[in-house]
Design brief:
Layout: E1 9-11, E2 15-20, E3 25-32, E4 37-44, H1 52-86, E5 105-112, E6 120-126, E7 129-139, E8 142-149
Parallel strand pairs: 4-5
Antiparallel strand pairs: 1-2, 2-3, 3-4, 5-6, 6-7, 7-8
Length: about 150
Amino acid sequence: MWPFRGPRIHHRTFGTLRPYRNEQFWRGKVQFGPAGHRVGVSIHAGKTGPTDAQERVYHQIETHYTALLSHILRAILPEYRKVRLAQPAAGWPEAAEPGDLLKVLSFGCIWLEQGAGHPFVLSYQSDRDKNHEFHVFFREGKVVNVAFEE
């Protein structure tokens, strides 16, 4: 075993998690059934690991993801169009309808935060451009913002 890998924990829901960002976050990969593939998890939880509340939020996301997806895509579409116009050299394909984004972006990560209102972020990334992500911010189960990050 590599001696500098650092501590890790095994969580009943999230599997193997490793600390990062000064041990304030834990990250790993989970099989996310509604998406049909593994997605990253990034959990703001300090040295003790994920809380029961964060685990419940994850299960709620998993349960309601299919119903949320159309809202998520409608929220991303205007930001996607802005990015596409601002960066024509990147070759982002046209997305006329929210559903067209499913051909361009894939679900990549769930970010679970701490605190009241159980904020979380769902991140989507293009298979052709791994350096950019669209983040959909939620508070109390509702979309509050979308941001593009390089």
